[in-house]
Write a structure and sequence with these properties.
alpha/beta, 2 domains, four-stranded parallel β-sheet, 10 strands, 49% helix, globular
């Protein structure tokens, strides 16, 4: 996963690494959060230059405090760009259009539009919010695990599967193993998040099958969390990332080392989720029962299972596909 934003000011954009399958975000979310205006043609130039496996047409995500009328206009501009990217760029075969909505009705209407006009196998779930969003003033970044998130995920995934035949990529989910599995269990196909870098910058490392621990930057208070020492880390897990193999102590002193470690853990969690899904829902659910029962987020896991069961019953009762 990479972003156009990282190359926007470079005269000759090119990858500084060898990519397998490159999913290139368009940079709109970061620019939106920083109140930076991006030029459409420059985004296209970078996307075509980097030649990604998948990339998102320039979209207009929402910000907290926006009025419904503003969010509606931003969706209209997003839809306009989807058509433009499909018809006027060389990226057609790699495009992943995004979906934004401000209530249930708009979600269904916008999905119906994408099913008709979106030329892709995938769609990316962006800003799906409710009527309270215009009054919300908190941080609107990586999707935080709570019942509101589960409601949004559950309803969005159910609507996408009912109205469209797209595979589902969700943006901003996946900074923690405990949150990423909610999405895969409910039915997403892929996800991305830059939260692993943010956690690293604030002294946090991600542990497989659980959450985060503080190992550096003792004054940091980002997201709460529990501190741990070197001895505790060695007892908790045996990580095979390039940092832990060579010099695990650098996790206490270097945020880049923590970022590499966190990225490695999250990639492994995504692979694990997909492998367990292939083995069947019963096997996946059994594994998740074990990891969540040790976590303070177990109550949300029970809620996730209820939502999935409810959606399944509703689809049978109302004849939804």
């Amino acid at each position: 996963m990479d972003s156009v934003f990282n190359y926007y000011r470079k005269e000759n954009p090119k990858l500084g690494y060898k990519a397998g399958e490159l999913f290139l975000d368009n940079g709109a979310y970061t620019a939106n959060m920083q109140n930076i205006k991006l030029k459409r043609e420059r985004i296209i130039e970078i996307q075509e230059k980097l030649d990604p496996s998948k990339t998102i047409p320039f979209d207009y995500p929402f910000k907290t405090g926006m009025l419904t009328s503003v969010m509606k206009k931003r969706w209209e501009k997003t839809a306009e760009n989807i058509v433009y990217w499909q018809s006027s760029t060389t990226l057609d075969s790699s495009l992943v259009p995004s979906i934004h909505a401000w209530n249930k009705e708009s979600l269904q209407n916008n999905l119906s539009w994408l099913q008709k006009y979106g030329n892709s196998d995938y769609l990316a779930v962006g800003s799906i919010v409710n009527s309270e969003f215009s009054q919300y003033t908190g941080f609107f970044g990586d999707r935080q695990p709570n019942k509101t998130l589960i409601d949004m995920l559950s309803y969005s995934i159910e609507a996408i599967k009912r109205i469209t035949d797209f595979k589902i990529h969700i943006m901003g989910l996946g900074s923690s193993p405990l949150s990423i599995h909610y999405g895969y269990y409910l039915g997403i196909d892929s996800t991305d998040s830059s939260g692993y870098r943010r956690k690293a910058a604030y002294g946090q490392i991600v542990l497989p099958g659980t959450g985060e621990r503080y190992v550096g930057n003792d004054t940091a208070t980002f997201g709460g969390g529990v501190s741990m020492n070197r001895k505790e880390l060695k007892l908790l897990h045996n990580c095979d990332c390039q940092i832990c193999r060579i010099n695990q102590d650098s996790l206490w002193t270097d945020w880049k080392s923590r970022a590499i470690h966190n990225d490695h853990v999250m990639k492994n969690e995504r692979k694990l989720a997909k492998n367990l899904i292939k083995q069947g829902e019963e096997t996946y659910e059994k594994y998740l029962n074990e990891i969540y029962k040790k976590s303070s987020l177990n109550y949300l896991w029970e809620y996730v299972k209820l939502k999935k069961k409810y959606n399944r019953i509703s689809n049978i009762l109302f004849g939804r596909r």
